[in-house]
């Protein structure tokens, strides 16, 4: 590949053409490429490649890891396995309506957009008026359970990049420290993906969330919310995790079971989850 542009022999490619050349180097979503590999693939000088790469990292199209450059959250969401939000909603809504009917609680469906959650659906309950969430609306991912559930499965360095601008407090319970947030995300992974939110986004509201995951990573997140002073949401946690897993199977029916989150609830797994819930210092 040369530096010649279609605009004329020997003419340097435009910035858009250069950026396109670099993005095309990442033909595999899981690729990790070093600077010298990208320069060799594109035919661009190392200095030019490095300058454009850093711009793409800053804009979220790429991320810089210890193994090289990789596709960032923006590129992964744009070219993900699930092509549109309608497909996610079609798979999720019947199961979310079932979850709402069984619990009477507010149920959310959302996706991760950089450091925010964007809500794709909301099914109301008695606590619905107290929640500012709305379809198409946003919430800071670090302050809501379905946001934390999705963040827990991102590479740590990607989560760090998302929080470069800091984490603003919504209430006195909001986690605003990056070290504390990583501790929280580790706890979520230890609970098989269950994330809890207690008065962190709205005072008086607690939620339990879980991520919808596919073979290539997080696709969406769901949450179940109610008033903090009513019955504890821990009792509904297995239902939330089960619904998230069932949505994953609907979205990726052809995927090998080995590549998907487990949906089998053995007695041992249930005992472990309930034990972790009982022993969690944040509960």
Give me the secondary-structure topology.
Blueprint: H1 15-24, H2 35-42, H3 46-58, E1 62-65, E2 68-71, H4 73-78, H5 85-103, E3 106-113, E4 116-123, E5 138-140, H6 145-151, H7 156-162, H8 178-190, E6 195-198, E7 205-214, E8 217-227, H9 237-251, H10 267-279
Antiparallel strand pairs: 1-2, 3-4, 3-8, 4-5, 6-7, 7-8
Low-confidence stretches: 1-11, 79-83, 260-274
Average pLDDT, to the nearest integer? 82
Count the beta strands.
Answer: 8
Largest sheet, order of strands side by side? Answer: 5-4-3-8-7-6
The count of domains is 2
CATH class of the largest domain: Alpha Beta
Structural class: alpha+beta
Measured between the Cα atoms of the first and last residue, the distance is 57 Å
Shape: elongated
Counted by DSSP, the helix tally is: 10
Strand content: 15-25%
Task: Report the CATH architecture of the largest domain.
Answer: 2-Layer Sandwich
* Sequence of secondary-structure elements: HHHEEHHEEEHHHEEEHH
CATH topology of the largest domain: Beta-Lactamase
**How many strands, which pairing sense, and closed or not: the largest β-sheet?**
6 strands, antiparallel
Helix content: 25-40%
The CATH superfamily of the largest domain bears the name GAF domain
């Amino acid at each position: 590949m040369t530096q010649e542009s279609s605009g004329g022999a020997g003419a340097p490619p435009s910035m858009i053409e250069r950026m396109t050349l670099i993005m095309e180097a990442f033909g595999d979503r899981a690729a990790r490429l070093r600077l010298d590999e990208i320069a060799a693939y594109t035919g661009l000088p190392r200095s030019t490649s490095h300058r454009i790469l850093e711009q793409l990292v800053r804009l979220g199209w790429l991320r810089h890891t210890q193994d090289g450059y990789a596709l960032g959250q923006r590129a992964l969401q744009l070219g993900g396995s699930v092509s549109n939000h309608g497909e996610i909603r079609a798979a999720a809504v019947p199961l979310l309506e079932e979850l709402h009917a069984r619990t009477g609680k507010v149920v959310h469906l959302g996706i991760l957009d950089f450091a925010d959650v964007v809500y794709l659906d909301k099914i109301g309950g008695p606590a619905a008026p107290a929640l500012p969430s709305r379809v198409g609306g946003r919430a800071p991912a670090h302050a809501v359970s379905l946001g934390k559930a999705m963040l827990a499965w991102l590479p740590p360095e990607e989560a760090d990049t998302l929080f470069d601008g800091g984490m603003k407090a919504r209430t006195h319970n909001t986690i605003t420290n990056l070290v504390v947030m990583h501790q929280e995300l580790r706890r979520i992974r230890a609970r098989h993906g269950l994330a809890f939110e207690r008065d962190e986004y709205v005072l008086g509201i607690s939620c339990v969330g879980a991520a919808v995951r596919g073979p290539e990573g997080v696709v969406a997140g769901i949450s179940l919310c109610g008033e903090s002073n009513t019955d504890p949401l821990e009792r509904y946690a297995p239902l939330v995790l089960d619904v998230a897993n069932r949505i994953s199977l609907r979205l990726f029916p052809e995927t090998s079971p080995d590549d998907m989150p487990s949906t089998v609830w053995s007695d041992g797994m249930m005992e472990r989850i309930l034990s972790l819930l009982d022993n969690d210092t944040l509960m």
